[in-house]
Amino acid sequence: MTTDQDLKDIVKQKYSEIALQDKETNQSSCCGSGCCSTDVYNIMNDDYSKLEGYNPDADLGLGCGLPTQFAKIKKGDVVIDLGSGAGNDAFVARAETGETGKVIGIDFTPAMIAKARENTEKLGFHNVEFRQGDIENMPVTSNIADVIVSNCVLNLVPNKDNVFKEIFRVLKAGGHFSISDIVLEGILPANIQQAAEMYAGCVSGAIQKQQYLKLIKENGFENITLQKEKAIHIPDDILLNYLSAEEVKQFRDSNTGIYSITVYADKPQAAKSCCGPDCCN
Prior knowledge:
Strand content: 15-25%
Largest sheet: 7 strands, mixed
Number of helices: 11
Radius of gyration: 19 Å
Structural class: alpha/beta
């Protein structure tokens, strides 16, 4: 049986390897318009290059959305980036929050933290820092962040409920998050669900879309909004590593969908009073 810690170790090992490569190397397995890719890590990313603050050294091509584009970051905000990698979203967030704000990136892979800090030094930023830690137990105090962003990371965490609890704890009252992530509609084939590479590749660790949104609501967030949604197509050559040709056809013919969503939600300005029949359970 694969434990939560086993899954975390798989992710840490793979992303440690990726941290030592550049974006071009990570994408080198994709040959031409047919995208005969052997890795699933780099088939979901959106183009950051036109966003202010973009730094190519920090872009490893690992995201599945553009959460900072939708995050409503204001000058002077404190922003936390969950699963900050080499610093891509953190540096875009810094362009929005300016010199009067602060950006904190959190990642549990030492090699990613080292790369992000190296990029920060090159850029000369004094209000961007990166902390090694687990986003299920963030190394920051409560009620500190105006905005939290994350790009294709929560699907890698076994206990997503814990992450949303931590997001709620860390956000200030009235703060909000914008998170891009992978979710499902329908059931993945068993061989995909059990494949370690597909877990680290952000697919088999994804949960049902409605379950994901329900977790957000159950953890006290309001104004839950889907800011963007797109279907993710996994090339046949990747699927054939885990499925037979007939199983790939069955998967294509099924109603199962893999989606990138960017979701926004607010932490309430103040805790609601518990005076009704449904809130003191």
